[in-house]
Specification:
globular; UPF0718_permease; transmembrane helix; Permease
Length: 333
């Protein structure tokens, strides 16, 4: 246990980096990290470097794994399984095919064109941007393994339940006709060499960097603002334990934000540091990743209003239930 704690502190939490940045801020910039400005500078530099390092390492490893699971292979795996087993498999495959919410939409179109069950497709669509190996490792780094495991488990449960409900409602006729009528061509699975997989993983790291670097900087900046400049009393009044609508507010705040787990974590970390309850933080992160406005706009182009409204309602209600449940159990964390 002591060895795991040391590895977590040094390799995931990067306490050595925090100490180094503290020395930089205090000895070079001559600001105290115990004051607002110095604390903000320390938070911004430390979290930015930490997230970029973790993102590079984690995305490289996950992308290497993902090279074995292109969309064609995922479709083949999911194609022969229906019902609750299919929903579970769809949700689990979403964890090893880490697409952002908008990138998941073309995959959704491909799965629907391939005539995969709608419920299975939606289980994949929910879990892919919300829950993956990267989110687990990053959450472990920021909050510890207990909260990280909870986030992944409840995300998977929400994906399975959401897909199951959509399957039972028989909403296949709510997919736009051009998607259903699109021709589907089976493509051969590409056999990559070791070097090609390494090259693929490196390119994925570069591509994701280009997509999210600004979101990370914005997220860290907001986190630094919350952590050092917004009074504890203000945070508590808006989404603190004393506000019975905290989970609802956190869920609604997350919807218009377009970010992935990398951009969301610094904000969540700052809220956690201000004493915001775990359930409220989970609700915020889940709404950002699963209900981002850009992805909903894209989804509205391929499904009809009834299916879109059903999807939004299931995810929103699920997130709110998860938030209030874990706030009630906050004493365990």
């Amino acid at each position: 246990m002591a060895l795991f704690s040391w590895l977590n502190d040094q390799f995931l939490r990067m306490e050595w980096l925090s100490t180094s940045i503290r020395l930089l801020v205090e000895d070079v910039f001559h600001f105290s990290v115990d004051e607002k400005l110095g604390g903000s500078i320390h938070f911004f530099i430390y979290d930015t470097i930490k997230i970029f390092i973790l993102m590079s390492v984690i995305i490289f490893g996950i992308s290497y794994i993902q090279s074995y699971f292109p969309p064609e292979r995922t479709k083949k795996i999911l194609g022969g399984i229906k019902g609750i087993k299919g929903n579970i498999l769809g949700a689990l495959l979403g964890t090893i095919t880490p697409f952002c919410s908008c990138s998941s939409i073309p995959i959704f179109i491909g799965f629907t064109t391939a005539r995969l069950p709608l419920g299975v497709t939606f289980s994949f669509l929910i879990s892919s941007p919300m829950v993956d190996l990267a989110s687990f490792l990053l959450l472990t780094s920021f909050f510890g393994i207990k909260i990280a495991a909870i986030y992944v488990i409840v995300g998977l449960v929400l994906a399975v339940i959401g897909g199951t409900i959509i399957d039972k409602l028989r909403l296949e006729n709510q997919v736009q006709s051009f998607v259903l009528e699109a021709s589907h061509v089976e493509s051969e699975l590409e056999q990559l060499t070791y070097k090609e997989r390494i090259h693929f993983a490196i390119n994925e790291v570069k591509a994701i960097f280009k997509k999210v670097w600004y979101a990370i900087l914005i997220g860290v900046g907001i986190g630094a603002l919350i952590h050092n400049w917004i009074p504890q009393s203000t945070i508590e009044a808006v989404i603190g334990e004393g506000n019975p609508f905290a989970v609802l507010i956190a869920t609604m705040i997350g919807v218009p934000i377009y970010a992935d787990i990398f951009g969301t974590l610094p904000i969540a970390e700052a809220l956690f540091g201000k004493g915001v309850e775990v359930g409220t933080i989970l609700a915020f992160m889940m709404s950002v990743t699963a209900l981002s406005l850009p992805s909903l706009i894209m989804l509205s182009k391929v499904v009809k209003p009834k299916l879109l409204a059903t999807f939004i309602a299931i995810i929103t209600i699920g997130i709110i239930i998860i938030g209030y449940t874990f706030n009630a159990l906050d004493f365990l964390f």
